[in-house]
Design brief:
Helix content is about 5%, strand content about 50%. With about 1000 residues, it is mainly beta. The strands form 13 sheets. It has a 22-stranded antiparallel β-barrel. Strands 10-15-16-13-14 form a five-stranded mixed β-sheet. The longest helix is centred in the first third of the chain and has 17 residues. It is globular, with a radius of gyration of 32 Å. It is a multi-pass membrane protein. It is found in: Cell outer membrane. This is TonB-dependent receptor.
Length: about 1000
């Protein structure tokens, strides 16, 4: 029996020995600062899934069955380190940062490169440097972050459209929108049925980095769609190591930033009497700007998960974003989900990546122009409510805007899926084939309706406009990449084929005359009494491309890149179906030379030079093909029936609605770039300087034929010899202090000078912006004039009010008359330069960042002032500003003519956003075993703006384009911008 006990004890001892584990603890710090690094992945070499990560103070504890081995320490931005262990022990591990941004990976077309190997002008913005706050789209993330990139919101509406101009305006009619590429998928810029920014479907918190391919060398690999440059968006991917969960929650409060200085009720009474007007005094004291705006509340919740091992990684997220606008019935709701997977097999030769983004997008828009007009012109003596109900007895028989805003709705529901799968296989070392299959499918339904309303003084017929749009974009790509390195020579060859097919269809109908029965028009379309207007369209465009690129480097000193892309588009005729877009670039890493290799002052110095051509295919579909329609008007018919007495009895004839234009060619942008990248003082000071010269030619435009006898009134053509020239200088500088101290800081900024000019134009003016309403509709405000910038303001020069109380304008040609020939070039909408700067401060666990941006040298036409702020309106009991009383002798019937009277300085400096943050150690509140980090933040957006502009905000553009030529710099009752305070909580598990 004793033997049995002894054997059991021996067995238990053996088992306890065999299950004994080795425990390794320690601390991970940065080198040389010795600051703790939280979130470092710690795992046994070869087993990344069986690991841990450092806590907020850089501490870790990990157990192994193995008695000895190698522990891997890995963290983004630091060099991976391997440390051997043997038995139980405590380690202190120091990680060194990557020496500079030269080692960061830059996404280029169909691949990536180290920053040190890049020969083109490429700017990158990482997620940690994005603008903070209530952000709906990509443009808001990078505004002010990149030299040469001018981002201007059309208005203050949530998710508003934007003008993103990269290195100047380079086209007459194709707009400013760059090509967006999301995880290798090129988006289509055509209609998807969403009235606000089409990029609102991407959750900003899913984005890891944004790379802007600015020069032709970098962008030419995308050929015919890169004339406005290329923006490459990379979403967050999983990384090997311990799984991570991140929860981000924000709440924001927004209010009207700036009021326009219209008269108060008491001042209004005095001013109406002063101009001998008819005062309609309602006896109240109402601030309509307060009454028709609100404190908007926005919430955002985002949950993300990521992780993986050496064979497989994943990243997934769910987001809910609810943004309110400061005007009622103005909301943007986005429900998004994202999944990114990557799987390796066959000894890591076979790799499959999968990206899926699904978004449900709801956008409610008010009748902003009407509301803003009411805010500024409503009689301030009128009461909003009487006995708790909306006042129905307002001045000038105006319908109370409280009622009209409830009766109006514009709601869009959009469902969109963006997905691509990209398997690749490495046949031999360095030779990889990749297939990319993607689809971008969008379907939207937009209902614009007005509820029927009847009162003693106002009658509104109910109406409904229903629009259904589908957009299907399918991409097939095949690429072959070969990496070859021998001694000091390094080659990368890329060859590829791409086919993309875009199908867009739209159906709509208009109904009116609905009964007042409490049912919304969209739910009783059969009850409409007025005639129905119907419309439908469908287009199908195809793009087939062949492309190639050679990257060569010798000894990491001398770099060469050459690309060529041939694009064939169904938008062009048989005679010019294909366009060819080449580029070449050179790079010289000067610091690799012996005379600088050991320099302690100069850490990096690289010279870049490039030349290339890109194109634009952003023209309407089918315009190269003839089109016909039926008509029995004018000379389109013949009196075949002798009994016919008028045209109604004549048969219909077939006539041209569009001529065939098989010779139309691509717009071409030719660009030269010279650049210098540098880092000094142990990489504390870094920057870039670029000079560019970009010339756009073969400009496409719809014009009237010179011969008056033509079968169609307008036709598309490449305007002979006409060019748009952009040249300028870009500078970016960043400086960082010693990060080893408790207090550290970084400062930096960028500035871009761009000179834009139209050359060799055969036209006196091509109107870009025209006046609206008040007898001025169509009158030119700005346009395209030879040897002048695009968007130059062209108008009469206002010199005062004459003795007769009327406008006086300068007689510039001295003929004694004031006619159109007296108009002058009075300024431009595009700025001379744009600039931005930032300040980052850090003290222990506190951090603060402020981002500023601004423009100079541009003007804004205050269409609101021209339409509303005049003496005549004041005399009729409409509110105005002191513009109406500026000239005491002005007649109340004086016309509001387009002139320099309403042209203002549009320069500004804005504190775009500022954030104060605190990183709270979970250990301090007893949650160290549950959470890795807790971050609290307070963010302010649009905290102040310094400007001379008298409107709501100088950053806007709500003018009406004419003849498909984009408008710039016109304020026509723009949706006001808001000031936002945001509270944020981020928890990492």
């Amino acid at each position: 029996m004793k033997k049995i006990y002894v054997m059991l004890l021996l067995a238990l001892g053996f088992m306890s020995f065999s299950y004994a584990q080795v425990t390794v603890t320690g601390n991970v710090v940065s080198n040389p600062e010795k600051a703790p690094i939280p979130g470092v992945s710690v795992y046994l070499k070869g087993q990344p899934s069986k690991g841990t990560s450092t806590d907020f103070d850089g501490n870790f504890k990990i157990q192994f069955k193995e008695k000895s081995g190698v522990i891997v320490f890995s963290y983004i931005g630091y060099k991976t380190k391997e440390v051997p262990f043997s038995g139980n022990q405590t380690l202190t591990v120091s990680l060194s940062e990557e020496t500079s941004s030269l080692n960061e990976v830059v996404i280029i077309g169909y691949g990536s490169q180290k920053r040190s190997d890049v020969t083109g002008s490429i700017a990158s913005v990482k997620s940690e440097n994005f603008n903070k706050g209530v952000v709906a789209n990509v443009g808001q993330l990078i505004q002010g972050k990149v030299s040469g990139v001018n981002v201007t919101a059309a208005s203050g509406e949530p998710g508003a459209n934007q003008d993103i101009i990269i290195r100047g305006m380079g086209s007459l009619r194709s707009g400013t929108t760059p090509l967006y590429v999301v995880d290798g998928f090129a988006l289509d810029n055509s209609n998807n049925g969403v009235a606000s920014n089409p990029l609102n479907f991407i959750n900003p918190q899913d984005i890891e980095s944004i790379d802007i391919l600015k020069d032709a060398s970098a962008a030419a690999i995308y050929g015919s769609r890169a004339a406005n440059s290329v923006v490459v968006i990379t979403t967050k991917k999983g990384k090997k190591g311990q799984s991570k969960i991140n929860l981000n929650v924000t709440n924001a409060f927004s209010s009207l930033t700036n009021k326009v200085a219209v008269f108060s009720a008491d001042e209004f009474r005095r001013q109406v009497n002063a101009v001998n007007g008819t005062l309609q005094d309602g006896g109240a004291n109402t601030d309509w700007q307060d009454e028709l705006t609100r404190t908007a509340i926005s919430q955002n919740i985002n949950l993300s998960m990521s992780g993986g091992n050496e064979k497989s990684t994943y990243a997934a997220s769910l987001g809910v974003d609810n943004q309110e606008g400061i005007l009622r019935n103005s909301d943007l709701k986005r429900y998004s989900g994202r999944l990114n997977l990557n799987q390796k097999a066959l000894d890591d030769k076979f790799n499959v990546s999968f990206n899926l983004t699904g978004t449900k997008f709801e956008n409610s828009r008010p009748d902003a122009r009407s509301i803003v007009g009411n805010m500024l012109t409503m009689n301030p003596t009128d009461a909003v409510y009487v006995d708790g109900e909306p006042n129905l007895n307002l001045s000038n028989d105006i319908l109370n805007p409280i009622i009209s805003e409830k009766n109006y709705s514009d709601i869009t529901n959009n469902n969109r899926i963006l997905a691509n799968i990209a398997p690749s296989y490495e046949f031999i070392k360095g030779l990889t084939y990749k297939f990319n299959l993607g689809v971008d499918y969008s379907m939207s339904q937009r209902d614009i309706q007005v509820l029927p309303y009847r009162s003693a003084t106002n009658t509104t017929l109910g109406s409904l406009n229903n629009i259904v749009t589908t957009n299907n974009n399918v991409l097939y790509e095949n690429t072959l990449t070969y990496n070859f390195k021998k001694n000091a020579h390094n080659f990368i060859f890329l060859a590829g084929h791409s086919y993309q097919k875009i199908q867009v269809s739209q159906k709509s109908y208009n109904l009116s005359g609905f009964p007042t029965n409490g049912i919304e028009p969209k739910n009783q379309i059969g009850a409409a009494s007025e005639r129905t207007t119907q419309f439908s369209s469908a287009v199908e465009n195809e793009l087939q491309s062949f492309f190639g690129r050679i990257n060569y480097g010798f000894d990491n000193k001398y770099l060469f890149t050459a690309t060529m892309r041939a694009d064939g588009s169904s938008k062009f005729g048989q005679n010019n179906r294909y366009g060819y877009f080449p580029s070449v670039a050179l790079g010289w890493n000067i610091t690799k030379e012996d005379f600088l290799k050991d320099s302690e002052l100069v850490n990096n110095l690289k010279f870049r030079a490039s030349w290339g051509q890109t194109g634009s295919q952003e023209i309407p579909s089918k315009i190269t093909k003839a089109s016909y329609r039926e008509s029995n008007g004018g000379y389109d018919t013949y009196p075949l029936d002798p009994s016919a007495t008028d045209l109604s009895g004549y048969p219909y004839g077939t006539i041209y609605s569009r001529l065939a234009s098989p010779d139309i060619q691509w717009e071409v942008s030719t660009q030269t770039n010279l650049g210098l990248d540098f880092s000094l003082f142990n990489n504390r000071l870094s920057g870039t300087v670029d000079y560019f010269n970009k010339v756009s030619s073969k400009l496409l435009l719809q014009i009237a034929p010179t011969d008056p006898i033509q079968p169609v009134p307008m036709y598309y053509t490449n305007i002979p010899n006409m060019e748009i020239r952009n040249n300028g200088v870009e500078l970016a500088l960043d400086y960082s202090s010693d990060k080893s101290l408790d207090f550290s800081y970084s400062i930096g900024g960028n500035i871009s000078f761009t000179k834009n000019k139209v050359a060799k134009s055969a036209y006196k003016i091509l109107t870009t912006g025209g006046a609206q309403g008040g007898g001025q509709s169509g009158a030119t405000i700005n346009g395209i004039i030879n040897n002048q910038p695009i968007g130059s303001f062209y108008m009469l020069d206002f010199i005062g009010i004459g003795p007769d109380g009327r406008n006086q304008f300068a007689d510039t040609n001295g003929d004694g008359q004031i006619l159109d020939d007296d108009r002058i070039i009075a300024g431009k909408a595009l700025p001379d330069y744009i600039y931005a700067f930032y300040l980052n401060l850090k003290y222990k666990n506190f951090d603060f960042v402020a981002n500023f941006n601004g423009t100079a040298g541009n003007k804004i036409y205050n269409h609101v002032a021209m339409t509303s702020f005049n003496r005549g309106n004041l005399a009729n009991s409409f509110n105005t500003t002191n513009r109406a009383s500026e000239f005491l002798n002005e007649d109340t019937s004086n016309s509001n003519t387009v002139s320099t009277r309403y042209l203002e300085d549009g320069s500004f400096l804005r504190l775009n956003n500022a954030t104060l943050g605190y990183n709270l150690s979970p250990k301090l509140i007893g949650l160290g075993n549950v959470m890795d980090n807790i971050r609290l933040s307070l963010t302010g957006q649009n905290l102040f703006v310094i400007t001379k502009y008298s409107g709501y905000d100088p950053e806007l553009n709500t003018g009406t384009s004419i003849g498909e030529i984009q408008s710039f710099g016109i304020d026509y009752f723009s949706y006001p911008r808001s000031r936002t305070i945001l509270l944020g909580l981020n928890v990492a598990f």
